[in-house]
Amino acid sequence: MKFTAITASLILAAAAWAADKPKATERLNDAAAVLSEVMATPDKGIPQDLLAKAQCVVIVPGMKKAAFVVGGEYGRGFAECRKADGFGWGAPAAVRMEGASVGFQIGGSATDLILLVMSKRGMDKLVGDKFTLGADASLAAGPVGRTANADTDVKMTAEILAWSRAKGLFAGVSVNGSTLRQDVDRNAELYGHKMNNREVLMGSMPPPPAAQPLIAELDKYSMRPNGADRSKH
């Protein structure tokens, strides 16, 4: 029975992936909108001092979750990393996120997910073919508020911090066990040919015009209150 349910879930997930085909440029716009909306409410959003320290940011807008005994989740989004010299943000690389769970459950939802990659080791995992959150890179639910206070120091040792927004509620979340993969087909949409995420994130590829709204939002919230670019320090 369990094998049958898992098989059915995988078939449903595959069908959902096939139907989930918004253009890469549209999803980039969605990612920019998610970040803008979350950061526009500083008392409920991601602490700006954490965003300023992050090596990379991953945004998966409208991540789908569905369940009928066996649960599954999937989504497509983009990773952005700081340029090698630390000044500003580079070209976005497309990612896919997948996960599964087994238990008594039924229903479905759509969730916006944001990950901050806080360390060089986490960044090295991100530019690979795939990695498992919580296993290949340490993960913690991110704190919410204007700044990261002393109560959240234990989370500052994590390589990746995670937040989600569902039905208007924004909070730190654990996505342990989910897999993050590169999406070379979406990269091909943006850059005209297939590129892996290491080539995009670690190379000198100029960002496509469609990425400018997302980069502008990242630049906006990587600034010190006095206007100095925190990524330069």
Please tally the β strands and state the result. Answer: 7
Extract low-pLDDT stretches: 1-20, 101-107, 224-233
Mind describing the biggest β-sheet? 7 strands, mixed
Average pLDDT works out at 79
Class inferred from helices and paired strands:
alpha+beta
How much strand? 25-35%
Number of helices: 7
Note the overall shape. Answer: globular
Report the end-to-end length measured between terminal Cα atoms: 56 Å
Helix share, percent: 25-40%
Rg over alpha carbons = 17 Å
Write the H/E string, N to C: HHHEEHEEEEEHHH
What would you note in describing this structure?
The protein has 233 residues and is of the alpha+beta class. It is 30% helix and 31% strand. The chain has 7 helices and 7 strands, in the order H-H-H-E-E-H-E-E-E-E-E-H-H-H. The protein has helices spanning 2-19, 24-39, 48-53, 120-126, 184-191, 197-202, 212-220, and strands at residues 56-81, 93-117, 130-132, 139-141, 160-166, 169-172, 179-182. Strands 1, 2, 3, 4, 5, 6 and 7 form a 7-stranded mixed beta sheet that branches. Strand 5 (160-166) and strand 6 form a beta hairpin. It starts with a helix and ends in a 13-residue tail after the last helix.
Task: Summarize the helices and strands and which ones pair or pack.
Layout: H1 2-19, H2 24-39, H3 48-53, E1 56-81, E2 93-117, H4 120-126, E3 130-132, E4 139-141, E5 160-166, E6 169-172, E7 179-182, H5 184-191, H6 197-202, H7 212-220
Parallel strand pairs: 4-5
Antiparallel strand pairs: 1-2, 2-5, 2-7, 3-7, 5-6
Helix pairs in contact: 2-7
